[in-house]
Amino acid sequence: MPDKTLRIDRAGLRDSGRRPVMLAIAGDSASGKTTLTAGLVEALGRERCVSLCTDDYHRYDRAERRSLPFTALHPDCNYMEIMEQHLRLLASGQPILKPVYDHSTGELTRPELVEPNSFIIVEGLFPLYSKLARACFDVTVFLDPHEDIRREWKVQRDTRKRGYAPEQVLAELAVREPESEAYIRPQRHHADIVVRFAPIEGRDEPPGTPLSAELLLRPTIRHPDLSEVLQAGLNRAMHLKLTRDSDGRPVDTLHIHGYVPTEESLAVQKAIWASIGEPESGTPDCLGELGPGARSEPLAIAQLLLLHHLLDAE
Amino acid sequence: MPDKTLRIDRAGLRDSGRRPVMLAIAGDSASGKTTLTAGLVEALGRERCVSLCTDDYHRYDRAERRSLPFTALHPDCNYMEIMEQHLRLLASGQPILKPVYDHSTGELTRPELVEPNSFIIVEGLFPLYSKLARACFDVTVFLDPHEDIRREWKVQRDTRKRGYAPEQVLAELAVREPESEAYIRPQRHHADIVVRFAPIEGRDEPPGTPLSAELLLRPTIRHPDLSEVLQAGLNRAMHLKLTRDSDGRPVDTLHIHGYVPTEESLAVQKAIWASIGEPESGTPDCLGELGPGARSEPLAIAQLLLLHHLLDAE
C-alpha cells in the first residue's frame, strides 16, 4: 500500500514544516485548468508557488500518436507510474526532473528541474487517476464545464494556439469521447471540489451574459464557513444549497451567478478575501482573469475559495 | 543519513528477490567506460541487463556550457541530486524517466524510460561522487588508464565520433584538468576495483604490443579465489601481488600482461569462466572487444572478473 506509506510519511513531514501544500486540478482537455491555475499561481506569488501540467508525462509525441490505437487521454499513452513517482517525490519535498511536452509543436523535449515550493499546483488530465496520485494532494478539484461550453473553448484554443482547423478539433473530440468517458470523467468522483461552468437556463439567456458556475463542495475536506458572507445581503451573487451528488452522497452546492452586476460579485470576493485573513492588500487583480481584458467573476470566487483551502492547509 | 536508510531498504529487498545488482564504472572522459560496459551488457544479455551513462545528467547543453565558468566535469554542471535520486529509485527496483544528452550534437533531448533489470551498469563521470550514490552499488570500478593513453583515446574518439579537431580536444583536456583533479580522480579512492591500462616499461616496448592492465582489488568486497587459475601454469599471462595502495591501504594487485601469446591469455579466461560456473557455453566472444576486429585480452580478463562479481552478488 504505497499510498498509505506516503500518507504516513507526509504526516510526519508536516510537523517538520518541509511539506508542500499540493492542489490537484483535473479535467478534460480545454476545461479551463490552465486559466484557473494561472490566477492562483499569480495570487500566491511565484516565489512560493510552482505549477506543473501532467500532459508533460505523455509517452508518445504527436507524430507517434497518429499510428497508435488510442489518444493522449488513454493511460497507456502516458508515463503514469513516473507521474505518480514524481508527485510522490514533490509531496515529500524533493525535486524532480520533469519531462516536457511542447503543445505548440507536439514534441517531447528537454526535461526541466522542478524544485518543490510551499504550494504546488498540478493540473492535467490525470492527477486524480490513481490512489497513489490522489494521496499526494491536500485539495483536489475536478473541472466539469457544460460539454457545449468545453467544445467551444477547445475549438477556440486549438485553432488559435495549436495550429488546428476547427473540423480537425471536432473530429478529435469525437475520437476522444470514449476515452474521456472511461479515464477522465471518473476522476470527478474523487475531487473535493467540482467546478462546473455553465449557463443557467432562463437567467443567462441573453447572449453575452457571463457564465455562471456551480461548485460542488464535498465534505471530504473542511470548507470555509460562508454563512457570514452569504448573510451580508450578498446571496444574489452566490448561494449555497444542500443537495445530493449524482451518486447519492450529500454535498453542498455553491451557485455563483454570472448575471448579477459586477459590484455585487466584487463585494462577495472582498468578504471571502477578508475571511482568508490576508490582511494588508485588496483582492488580487489576477483572480478571475480569462485573458487580456476578459474577466469572469464566478472564476474569481472559485479561485478565492481554493486560495482559502491552500492557505488553510499550510 | 539517506545512504544508510537506502542500504537498509536494499538489504530488505534482497530477500524478496526484487533487488537489482548494480555496478558502477566511474572514470574520466575517454577512460574506456563505454567499451568495458558494452562487453558486460552483451555477455549478461540485454534481457537481464540495462546500462546507463551519467553524462545524461548534464544540466547544460554544449552551447550553454561555452559561456559557463566550468566544464561538464564540475558537479554544478550536472543534476547531481537527480542522478542520486534516480540511482536510488533503480536500486529499489523502480523505473526512472532518464534525461538524455546526445553526445553527437551536444543537445539535451527527450528523456527515456529505464526499467530496472537483474543487472544495472551505471557508467560515467560521477557515479561514485557522493556517499548516497555509492550506497546504491554492489560493485564499484574506477577506470584509471595511464594519462598518455587516455589522451590518445580521447583525441581519437572525439575527432572521429564527436566532430572535434585534434587541437580542440587537447585544449579542452587542458581546461578540464583542474576539475578532473578536483572531482573525478578522487572517486578512485572509493572503488572496489581500479582498472589501469598502461604499457609495462621494458616489456611492452615494441610499438603495437597490446596494452597491459593492472587491477587493484581492494578488500572492500570478496574477490574470487584466483589461486587455482594462477597455479595452472598460467601466471605468465597474469599474476597477483600483495601491495599497498597509494594511501597505504593493503591491496591485491592483479597484473595482466598484454605481451603474452593470445593462447595463454585465452587459457586464463577459460579457467575464470569455468570458476564462475556458467556451464554450458564457452567464454563469450564479446569480452575483450575494442571495436570491429580489435581485441584486448587484458580487457576480457577484467570483464570476466567483473562478471564473476555481478553473478556472485545476485
TrEMBL record, chains A, B:
InterPro entries recorded: P-loop_NTPase, PRK, PRK/URK
User: How would you classify this enzyme at the top EC level?
Assistant: transferase
State if Transmembrane is listed as a keyword: no
- Which EC number(s) does UniProt give? 2.7.1.19
Instruction: Identify the species of origin.
Output: Pseudonocardia eucalypti
User: Any idea which UniProt keywords this protein has?
Assistant: ATP-binding, Calvin cycle, Kinase, Nucleotide-binding, Photosynthesis, Transferase
What is the name listed in the Swiss-Prot or TrEMBL entry for this protein?
phosphoribulokinase
Q: Which pathway does it take part in?
A: Carbohydrate biosynthesis; Calvin cycle
Q: Which domain of life is it from?
A: Bacteria
Q: Which Pfam families match?
A: PRK
Which ranges carry the Phosphoribulokinase/uridine kinase domain?
A: 23-199
Organism lineage: Bacteria, Bacillati, Actinomycetota, Actinomycetes, Pseudonocardiales
| Catalyzed chemical reaction(s) | D-ribulose 5-phosphate + ATP = D-ribulose 1,5-bisphosphate + ADP + H(+)
Q: What family does this belong to?
A: Belongs to the phosphoribulokinase family.
